[in-house]
Write a structure and sequence with these properties.
The structure holds 2 protein chains of 2 kinds. By secondary structure, chain A is of the alpha/beta class. Chain A is built from 5 helices and 6 strands. Chain A has a 5-stranded mixed sheet. Chain A starts with a helix and ends with a helix. Chain B is α+β, with helices and mostly antiparallel strands. Chain B folds into 2 domains: 82 residues, F0F1 ATP synthase delta/epsilon subunit, N-terminal (ATP Synthase, domain 1, Sandwich), CATH 2.60.15; 41 residues, Single alpha-helices involved in coiled-coils or other helix-helix interfaces, CATH 1.20.5. Helix content of chain B is 26%, strand content 43%. The chains are: A alpha/beta, B alpha+beta. At the A-B interface, helix 1, helix 4, strand 6 and helix 5 of A face strand 5 and strand 8 of B.
Chain lengths: 280, 135
């Protein structure tokens, strides 16, 4: 009897866990949808910005702007983008592993996401900036805040190079860990230049000066959006797997339960039969 | 004859805010405020903090921007703004508090004050309040 009770209790507990994972899966799916829409919404701006920079770069000397200046990388910063929350498979741990492999010592860390802040904060790394809890209400202001700070440090030569590690959103079930260079900005690939001759006010160079910091903010914004979508995708997949595993466990346990129940009934019948034979 | 119109799009990183045929618009350029009518020559300038006023022939719309730039092409104009908030989106209380905070910071004149930042914040707050029509 006691084993029956134990099994019944285990089934109930697995079922309630499954309810939670299934709910989380559905929440992640809804958030993923929203995150993907945000990526879509940012696209017109990104495309236009790139066109404009391309047409400005050919009209000015692109090397004169400080954000494009390439220096000997003595002081490097790495911006590490993790999520704020766990239960999303290897989303955060992949980033952390990649970041530790990329470090050569002496880099400053710019941490985005609570998980990265928790991990690197405790281990004596040189943490310059922490941005945790921004993904819940992600807005362009978050990107601007990071961008303006980097812009200032880079132009004052406090930093010579800024690298970026984040999860790129490929599809709902695929994320790639990407390591790329954020600063110096790579001069835009010159595609077919816009043939229109504009009147620039005050001058093409001044307009370029105003646009490049915007471009930096936009890069950061794109990365935050990508990482956010990737996180939701990863969580959705992880929770789907957890729900399936729970289902399998429930089925096995139910089988055990039925076997045990049958065994008990058989034993009881045998007892009764034995008893009635004894009475005769 | 009604005034000629042209397509105007206001695009921010968070989406397309405005897309409509307009008669004219005014925007805060880095060399001062400017206005554009249909058939303007190709023109490009960066924007400062300030109000954008759009007129579609019967109604005026106001947006508060914190900067960006504008590209005018013969039949289409694109305003790429870092932010562009309509009256309804502006949080008056928040703008008021940040206005007061910036004013206090500028008056206190402490040695470690980032004057530029405080002034920018002051401008942004004033601009928002102006667009809402409170100030």
């Amino acid at each position: 009897m006691s084993t029956l009770k134990v099994i019944r209790r285990r089934i109930a507990s697995v079922k309630s866990t499954q309810k939670i994972t299934r709910a989380m899966q559905m929440v992640a799916a809804a958030k993923l949808h929203r995150a993907q829409m945000n990526i879509e919404k940012a696209r017109p701006y990104t495309l236009k910005l790139r066109d404009t920079i391309a047409s400005l770069v050919i009209r000015t000397d692109p090397n004169r702007h400080p954000l494009l200046a390439v220096r000997e990388p003595e002081k490097t910063a790495i911006m590490i983008v993790t999520g704020d929350r766990g239960l999303c498979g290897s989303f955060n741990s992949n980033i952390i592993r990649k970041a530790e492999a990329a470090m050569q010592g002496g880099e400053e860390l710019i941490l985005v996401g609570k998980k990265g802040v928790e991990y690197f904060g405790k281990r004596g790394y040189n943490v310059a900036q922490k941005h945790s809890g921004i993904f819940r209400y992600l807005n362009f202001g978050n990107a601007t805040a990071i961008g303006e700070m980097l812009n200032r440090y880079y132009c004052e030569q406090e930093l010579d190079r800024v690298l970026l590690i984040y999860n790129e959103f490929k599809s709902a079930v695929q994320q790639y860990v990407v390591l790329e260079q954020l600063l110096p900005l790579k001069p835009a690939e010159i595609g077919e230049a816009n043939p229109v001759e504009y009147i620039y006010e005050p001058s093409a160079a001044a307009v370029l000066d105003a646009i490049l910091p915007l471009n930096l903010n936009m890069q950061i914004w794109r990365v935050l959006l990508e990482s956010n979508a990737a996180e939701q995708g990863a969580r959705m997949t992880a929770m789907e797997n957890a729900t399936d595993a729970a289902q399998e466990m429930i089925e096995t346990l139910t089988l055990h339960y039925n076997k045990a129940r049958q065994a008990t009934i058989t034993r009881e019948i045998m007892d009764i039969v034995g008893g009635s034979i004894g009475m005769e | 004859m009604s005034a000629p119109k042209f397509r105007l799009e206001v695009v921010t990183p968070e989406g397309v805010v405005f897309s409509k045929d307009v008669v004219s618009f005014k925007a805060p350029g880095s060399e001062g405020q400017f206005g554009v009518l249909a058939n303007h020559a190709p023109f490009m300038t960066s924007l400062e903090i300030g109000p954008i006023e759009l007129f579609d022939g019967s109604e005026s719309y106001y947006l508060a921007t914190t900067g960006g730039f504008t590209e005018v092409l013969p039949h289409k104009t694109i305003i790429l703004a870092e932010t562009a908030e309509t009256k309804g989106e502006i949080d008056i209380e928040r703008a008021r508090t940040s206005l007061e905070r910036a004013q206090k910071r500028l008056e206190a004149k402490s040695p470690d004050l980032d004057v530029e930042r405080a002034q920018l914040s002051l401008h942004r707050a004033l601009n928002r309040l102006r667009v809402v029509g409170v100030k």
